Amino acid sequence: MRCFGLSETGGLAHNENMDETTFAAEINDAYRAVYLLGARRAADPRSIPSPEAVAMLRHLEQSGPLTLSELSQHLQRALSTLSPKVAAMETQGLLTRQPDLTDARRALVWLTPKGREVLDDALHVLDRACLGEAARRYLSPPQRERIVGALRDLHEALAMHHSLQRQGDA
Questions:
Q1: Could you tell me the domains of the chain?
Q2: pLDDT digits (tens, 9 = 90+) for 20-43
């Protein structure tokens, strides 16, 4: 039996004449296959934060504590719709309000340790335990290093490509 992307001997399939179109198609197919088998899935979908909640947590992580008005402006959301969402996330233990030390009239919205943990978990698309177990059982340490190295190389190539596109040189 031949597994996607693997040769009959279990090594990566090798094609020295792969053109750009074939490469893009193979990467797309391999990514889809890995995602289908390795995606993180929750037993209870209600335990996964909404994309809106993840965006808010991520924004606060990157920006630091903000007032509700500042957060509303940053996220381009009406204060009247954002306020209940922040209150719900406070109830869930993801956010807290702290007094602003420079202005006692203001409160700053900030991540709790649980909020950081939920954000970290939400940003992992693939099931780390599943990946680790599959790697331990079926991939040698050199194979693991080659896969990670190839993905890093692809990331670097994409980053350079996007940088050149932004500069208008592509």
A1: 1-40+124-160 (no CATH), 45-121 (1.10.10.10)
A2: 999 999 999 999 999 999 998 877
